[in-house]
Design a protein that fits this description.
- The longest helix is centred in the middle third of the chain and has 20 residues.
- It contains seven helices and 18 strands.
- It has three domains: 145 residues, RutC-like (60s Ribosomal Protein L30, Chain: A); 143 residues, 60s Ribosomal Protein L30, Chain: A (2-Layer Sandwich); 108 residues, RutC-like (60s Ribosomal Protein L30, Chain: A, 2-Layer Sandwich).
- 23% of the residues lie in helices and 26% in strands.
- It has 423 residues and is of the alpha+beta class.
- β10, α5 and β11 form a beta-alpha-beta unit.
- A six-stranded mixed beta sheet has the order 1-2-3-6-4-5, covered by helices on one side. A six-stranded mixed beta sheet has the order 7-8-9-12-10-11, covered by helices on one side. It has a six-stranded mixed beta sheet with strand order 13-14-15-18-16-17, covered by helices on one side.
């Protein structure tokens, strides 16, 4: 089995946590979970600024963005690529005030081409004072991996304030940025909104989800030479846990039940004040050499909303996994102060993930990216200990994001969104 290559692993000071700053797998490069930290004292000194002169120099959030993107550029150069070969960006912020300064940094570093992007407001990040957590997926330059912007239209567009490409193709792969039910001025589109005087003229989450899928995602896929049937991975961020089953019902009606890797993640806020959902997708082109293969080794259906995983070429894309066995007996909250709940959840999730990986002909040793969503970030260290049970001594390419509870399974306090290399 081909191995992944860890790029610039770093030990978090005075801990046993080894963080993989980057992973190279074939022609893919993953940079996951980056905050503007020196991995030693917290925020890097140049980001923290001068305590007695906080109003001097560039804004703190701009310094954060510059720091992260400079690190991205250096890690990509080490792996034989650069920012112009990015295909996907994911950003998490505990405050909306960080977003616009970060956009200024992004334009300065990326120039005319910013990869498809998703940004959501969450509750908390790992480093005290950090307000940006960013992940990037890029490719090594080469024939067959040219990045082509999908032609933009009224339905395939990016926010005027962000400037990222709404959709691109790279070989047989299609990447569509996070989509919301927006009108041209970035208010809610009236077609996706229940009229204020009406109580039962539709349901808000259903109208927004239907609009995003049919009026934003589908046109982007068609323009890229793909279709809803060839979606291999989707992430949906919802601001209200009560909306989860309504969204999944709409998704299953329009895309198909368990036909792609589907992560449904709670968040705090989105770009539109009244927006309740944002969705990004990855697909393969219709009729291409890269085929979609659903991987289902028979894990409990309650563990994930979508297919357990989908293999697309040399990538294995998981649905977000929760520790939700059908008997509901896993988590014992009365022992939570011993870490029982955290360890039991992480161990259950990684056991299911290993089964999925083996069914796809790979293993957790080829994990290239994991986004861990926790309702309590104090769980992260114990979760890392469980990773070490499965991958002793290995640096882990993880982002840990604090999100609002409850999870879709209320007894659960974490979910993991994994990607693996499956050559």
């Amino acid at each position: 089995m081909s191995k992944i290559e860890i790029i610039a692993p770093v030990q978090i000071a005075d801990t046993n946590v080894s963080f993989a700053q980057g992973v190279k797998a074939g022609n893919w490069i993953f940079l996951t979970g980056h905050e503007a930290s020196d991995h030693s004292t917290g925020l890097a000194p140049q980001v923290r600024g001068k305590a007695h002169y906080p109003g001097h120099g560039t804004p703190k959030h701009r310094r954060e963005g510059d720091f992260i993107l400079e690190r991205f550029a250096a890690l990509l150069a080490e792996a034989g690529s650069d920012l112009s070969h990015g295909v996907r960006l994911d950003q998490y912020y505990p405050t909306w005030k960080a977003v616009d300064p970060y956009h200024h940094a992004r334009r300065a570093h990326f120039g005319d081409y910013i990869p498809p992007s998703t940004s959501v407001i969450t509750d908390e990040l790992m480093v005290a004072g950090a307000d940006i957590n960013a992940s990037m997926l890029a490719v090594v330059p080469g024939e067959g991996r040219e990045i082509r912007r999908v032609k933009e239209s009224d339905q395939v567009e990016s926010p005027f304030f962000s400037g990222f490409a709404p959709a691109i193709t790279c070989g047989d792969y299609v990447f569509v940025a996070g989509q919301m039910a927006n009108a041209p001025d970035w208010s809610l589109d009236p077609r996706a909104h229940v009229a204020d005087p009406a109580l039962w003229a539709g349901y808000e989450i259903r109208k927004q989800a239907e609009f995003i899928i049919t009026e934003r995602i589908l046109p982007a896929l068609v323009a890229a030479g793909s279709s809803l049937g060839n979606v291999v991975k989707a992430q949906a961020y919802l601001t209200d846990a009560d909306d989860f089953p309504h969204f999944v019902e709409v998704w299953n009606e329009l895309v198909g039940a368990r036909q792609c890797a589907l992560s449904v993640v709670p968040c705090s806020k989105l770009a539109i004040v009244d927006g309740t959902i944002e969705i990004n997708v990855m697909a393969v082109v219709d009729g291409g050499a890269t085929q979609k293969q659903i991987i289902d080794p028979g894990i409990p259906s309650t563990v994930a909303y979508g297919a357990p995983a989908v293999r697309a070429g040399d990538l294995l894309l998981f649905s977000a996994l929760m520790a939700a066995p059908k008997d509901e007996s896993l988590v014992r909250p009365d022992l939570r102060h011993y870490g029982q709940s955290t360890v039991a959840q992480a161990r259950f999730i990684l056991t299911q993930a290993e089964k999925i990986a083996q069914a796809a002909g790979t293993s957790l040793a080829n994990t290239v990216r994991v986004h861990q969503f926790h309702t309590d970030l104090s769980e992260v260290h114990a979760t890392y200990g469980v990773w070490q049970e499965f991958l002793p001594g290995a640096p882990i390419p993880f982002a840990a994001i604090g999100v609002p509870g409850p999870m879709p399974a209320p007894a659960c306090t974490m979910m993991m969104d994994l990607w693996a290399y499956a050559p």
